[in-house]
Task: structure prediction
Amino acid sequence: MQNKSQTSPAGPVIVILGTGGTIAGSGDDVGYTAGQIGVPQLVAAVPALASRSLEAEQVAQVDSKDMSHEIWQVLAMRVQHHLARPEVGGIVITHGTDTLEETAYFLHRVLSPAKPVVFAAAMRPATSLQSDGPQNLLDAVTVAGHPSASGVLATLNGRVHGPVEVRKALPFALDAFSSGEAGPIALIQEGQLRLLRPWPVCEALGMGRVTHAPAAWPPVDVVVSHAGASGRVVDALVASGTRGLVIEGTSNGTVHASLLEAIERAQAAGVSVLRSTRCAGAAVVGAPGGALPSAGELSPAKARVELLLQLLGQLGAPPA
Ligand code: ASP
Result:
């Protein structure tokens, strides 16, 4: 779906790609439906954006709890397309808050762009009397148009988060996002960017990783270790064809002995494993002998993206 509209010219072009979410939601603060309002209307609600050179394009219109690999693939292609245009200074992606951190990490690992790609979201719908969407959108455009900014970022509530650390920590608060102990990359104060630490960068895996039809992407699942755990879930997942398992371990990625036996059976059957922690905002540190491969600082949801991209790299070129 493409719905392009160009507004007044000033400065480098910022492309706003819409994917839905509460920022595009309609209804009251509790009983609203996410993903209802198009990007041109979201832009029109922010008078300060009238003087900016913007393009709007609707890539999807979903509640991000339902984010799919199909949308990720299309989004990555549209981001790559616009980044290659010399007149484009940066990209803003409007997105639901539920899975924002996964989509951000996905684009970070696939593209690691030199230009800023900035996620904007909201905790209150566009029709709320006190919607946070317009300010967050304005801040995201400020960051996307900033000459020094680069990489995939998320701008919410005056903070600019990086794609590795950012996570939704609270389901209702306006200040719902956190970068844990690392803290935000920058702050936006009085419309000005205050940089606290370097912009995010990694070795991009490249678009070749995501060219296979999403139906062919290897299944990767997350399993939690907990008191009274058994190997049943892992055995069932292996029987149903999973190719990768992210273990959401206790503490520093420790795993219940009964679950571990099943994980080792899965590994012997060729299933790839990454070990993360269910401690919010924490990293798995060290790799004691015999331990399962560590997801390091990645949350379980981001470790799933990482493992998915690793497995996609083993598929080779898609059929012509
Ligand atoms: N369920 C919504 C979404 O992720 C929540 C939000 O955007 O705040 O699309």
Notes: Residues 20-22, 34, 63-65, 96-98, 121, 123 surround aspartic acid (CB under 6 Å). The longest strand covers residues 54-62.
